Structures are given as structure tokens and as C-alpha cells.
Amino acid sequence: MIEFRNVSKKFGKKKAVDNISFKIKEGEIFTLLGPNGAGKTTTMKLMAGLLLPDEGEILLNGSKKEYKDFLGYIPDEPFIYPELSGREFIYFVARLYKMKKNEIDERFEKLCNRFEVGEWIDMPSSTYSHGMKQRVVFIQSLIHNPRIIIIDEPHVGLDPKGSKIVNELMIECAKNGASVVLSTHSLHLAEELSDRICLINNGKLLGIFDAHKISEEGYKNVEELYFRITSEVF
Questions:
Q1: What's the pTM value of the predicted model, to 2 decimals?
Q2: What per-residue string of b and e applies to 23-46 under the rule 16 or more CB within 10 Å gives b?
Q3: E-assigned strand segments in 63-212
Q4: Where's the ABC transporter domain (predicted)?
Q5: Mean pLDDT to the nearest integer, 146-171
Q6: Domains of the chain
Q7: 75-100 as b/e, with b when 16 or more CB fall inside 10 Å?
């Protein structure tokens, strides 16, 4: 379980994340929703350990212990060393996790088949399209079978088939006990995949809602929830 306790993060005088607290359970898909500049990406970078909070604390199962070995992070802008092929990059990352070669080989083959990766995986990544890079980044982020998966805009650069693969994989990972955290502007995607939805704006937490009980809260769907809550508060 990941827990944010009164977490704040400033850039200059602006609070990008303002005293946010929440818990993310094992085996759930937890979605951050909010307009541009709401603080979603900053929250995810804090969760991934790429930023440190100015105030508050971030815990794993009640402890501040290092948890990056259990984490996979997929940013909205994929990065691969341009001189490396996709295979070389993935194997490089896997070795950082101290995986054995037979383990890497097995996971690599399984994930490449899942993402329908072709012979281009052995070409220099400088020749890749955005969608190819995104598939490689997904594979390298999942190669060590992480228990926490953080995905910023999961469909960016992916074609419909790639998007479908990612959706199925997120659901599968959650069913297998992983905590899946995603940020998206797609209200339809949030409604389709989420177990819980966290609304934020201007760095503040507006509310956390059970995605399976939206109608019980008095809303037709996630779209109505989003626009009513954001307009009521701001």
C-alpha cells in the first residue's frame, strides 16, 4: 500500500502539490484526474521518487523504506538512449534490477509477444516512432514484475491496438495484486478502468470516489462527476 501523508511540493512560490493525503491499495487501479496544471504529473513523480516532498511523507506499507525496486514508471514522454536498440535498453535496465539472464530472457520474450513487438526491437531506437518508443518503455518498466506501476497518460503515442494491449495489461496487473496508478485526461478511460478516482486541481485534493459506485453518489457517470466537482470547488 502506498500512502501520501500531508504531502506538499513547491516550485518557486507555487505549490504544485498542496497538503495531499491518500492511500492506494494493492490490487486496484487508482486514477488521477484533473485539468492541465492540476498537479497530477508532480504527484506521480513524487510517488516514483523522482521528486522529494517539501513537506509530509510518502510510505510503503507504513514504512519510509526504499521501494524503487518494486516500482515501474512510464512517463508521458518516452526516453530511450538513442544509440541503443530497444532490446539493449531493456536488458540494460533489467540488469540494474539485478535480474538473472534467464529471468530477463523469459520476461523479455513474454512482454515482447504481449506488445506485438517486431524485428525493429533490434534496430537503433533513434529510428523508432513515438509509439514504438512507448512500447519499449512499457516493457522496460514491467520487466522486473513491479508491484507498483505508475503510468502518466497511458495511451500517448499508441495506436488503438497498442492502447487495447495496455488496458488489458493494467487490469491483469491489478488482478495479480499490483497497485496501478494512472493519470489521464480521458474521462472514458478513467470510467472504464478505474477502481477509484482521485480528483485534484491547483495541487489540492478535491475528493476520492469509488468508480463502481458513481451513480450511488448521485452522478450519471465520471464525466458528470468531474465537471460538477471541479465547477463547485473552483
A1: 0.91
A2: ebeeebbbbbbbeeebbbbbbbbb
A3: 71-74, 148-152, 179-183, 196-201, 204-210
A4: 2-227
A5: 90
A6: 2-233 (3.40.50.300)
A7: bbebebeeebbbbbbbbebbeeeebe
